[in-house]
Fold each of these.
Amino acid sequence: MSETVPSSSLIKRLEKRIEKNFSDQIELLQKLVKARSTNQYTPDLSPKDIPVEAKVAKLIYSEIKNMGLSPKRIGESRERTNVVCNFGPDRFRKSLILNGHMDTVEQVSTWTRKPFAGEVENGRLYGVGALDMKGTLSAYMFVLKALVAEKVKLDGRLILEFVVDEEPGASSQYGTGYLVKKGISAKAAIIGEPGTGKISIGHRGGYRFRLTTSGEAVHTGFSAWEKKEKGRNAVLDMARVIIALQTIEMPYRPARAFPGRIPVFTFPTNINGGTSINIVPDKCVAEGDVRLMPGNSDKQVKMWMEEAIKLHCPDIIYEIEDLVYVPSVEIAKHEEIVDVLLKNMLEVTGRKPKIAGAGPWNDAWMLVTRGIPTVAGFGPDGENAHGANEHVDLGSLKDITKIYARTVVEYLGVKK
Ligand SMILES: [Zn+2]
């Protein structure tokens, strides 16, 4: 059987179904917000055995089961499972991943509303993660629900991925990284990070590191220090390193997804050294953050740092520890998945989004580096993601659910 274009009557039926189910979708989103999944960990300390997202995973798993489908819970540990659901034929040519993270950032202290209640007011739903990105997860669920209810037979395979551990730096091996490692692949993917203003065709990358200088501690009143026989001030050494590293100029090639942007080296972003007012500090630790463009790598940056230190202060004893590395990625402006999303955004809302790269990175690089053209962001509108009184705009959420549904049937095709 060959791939066929979905009829306009099928699209109308799907949209009607989404309209009809929308109050249920709001209710599910409230449950998702109440199922607290704040992720306080840094990528290097992310624990395998703390059930950060488990309440959300359980909820999504049982909702999909209730649709009569067979979702799977898979992951590095029982506590941190991803939920994956395949929908469509066993044999297929085309396939599409819809990916979204189940964890959220910690709530900031300046919330004036209840952060985990899912309050609805004036067409907005408030809550930690309501926008980033539980709203999107609810959209994926109700696309699936509409497909099931309308008995749609897709010509290709839809793969829903609800993943763990994205927020701390999109570099986790428990979430999308785990699914990639297990061989789950597709012809295209969408990560529905919020915002309809832009179809994101890539993201900048990042490298974060910790640099430690080592000296020798000695009491400042000792004559050995006075005579320069003993002691070495690690904070002073760090000051020299800091000055040396300001000379780094990172070469890059211009990228179509990031017109006008350049790589940015910031060091230090935080610093710590010394133990007491009358002791020469023997250690100083500082961290740095580097924003990368396509073609830049962590190895490159480290080499430039080492060269600068060698040139300006070769006597310093130091160590560089890698914290996070995410490469910058971009896909073509006219990938089929981008074109289909763009067309449907126009048809549903009458508005034309920009097509460009995103500043902050997410899990998209894990898919793009495996050859999967991935939209790194296109989801519902709202405000204050990661901030106080985060909320998703419910009108936009309904639109985006329709846009995803249309995109699924048009990209994958339907069987008659
Ligand atoms: Zn996000």
Amino acid sequence: MKAGVVGIGGALPETVVTNADLEARLDTNDAWIVKRTGIRERRHLDGGRTLTDLGAEACSMALADAGRDPADVDRLFVCTLTPDRYMPGLAPGIGDQIGATKAGCIDLNGACAGFLYALDQAAGLVESGRAQLVVVCGAEALSRITDHADRGTAILFGDGAGAVVVAPGDLDRGCSTFELRSEGAHGDLLYADGEERLMRMDGKEVYVHAVARMVEATEAALVRAQITLDDVDLFVAHQANARIIESAARRLGVPAEKVVMNVDMIANTSSASIPLALWHAERDGQLQPGDTVALASFGAGFTWGAGVITWKEHAQAGA
Ligand SMILES: CC(C)(COP(=O)(O)OP(=O)(O)OC[C@H]1O[C@@H](n2cnc3c(N)ncnc32)[C@H](O)[C@@H]1OP(=O)(O)O)[C@@H](O)C(=O)NCCC(=O)NCCS
């Protein structure tokens, strides 16, 4: 019995902040932002909706996509750096909103790599038989911890939520074992501390580590899954910025048509970025059931990781 991804959902706040909007209040410009990051716009959560609402929308959509009843969910993991309240976490409220009446619901904070860590946990629970149905959600309102006067970071981040449903099946691969790592010695290169609660970053250092670590982890994940790059249909890397993704893909040797890119529309949404990239890729027809997908992520900590999954393998088998 293996654990597979059987449903996907995403949700974005309505408010769009374009590069032109940032130009009006910061010493920056659209051409610089697009050239250095590939980002054209981002979404900000405002107007009364909570991050709980956004996460619940993504989770409900993922369960509907999987054709599963929320009342059957055993566990809900919500990855977030930016919960609505310091406590409780987002997960119990999201579980309540979606009707996951018998689920254990908890937040996990693995920064931008959180989603892959949580997906690995979900797969482990399902494969061990401890859970039959797990929802993994990344939900972030990074606008809450962005210094909107700092042009070095204010251009980079956005808000959003994405979710997947993980369930058991008689699958060839499902979610293969992930390669997960962390290196706390680099904690000062990207952080928001308890007092200030604003992201601070050494952009150049983060850039170099992000590319190198995602490449190493992806190579290790491919070896572990006993496949080569030729077997990979799609490379879905953390949508931090286009240059990081393109550089990692180039080093790995992944052709551009196999690289998912939605950072232009939503910027870096931290732990929501991988599920939102999968959601967009499927909606755009870039991702089909049965596809072999290499996932890679990197974030504050540093934490990072990579894994190989077969997309909706069940759906392809017609089960
Ligand atoms: C942030 C980042 C885009 C900056 O790009 P960069 O090429 O390293 O740019 P630099 O910081 O060297 O700055 C180059 C120049 O542009 C200026 N600049 C910085 N931000 C600017 C902005 N938003 N608009 C215009 N100019 C800007 C700098 O002040 C500097 O000017 P100077 O040469 O006169 O000193 C890049 O470092 C990056 O993408 N890092 C990774 C960030 C990330 O993804 N973090 C999250 C990971 S999970």
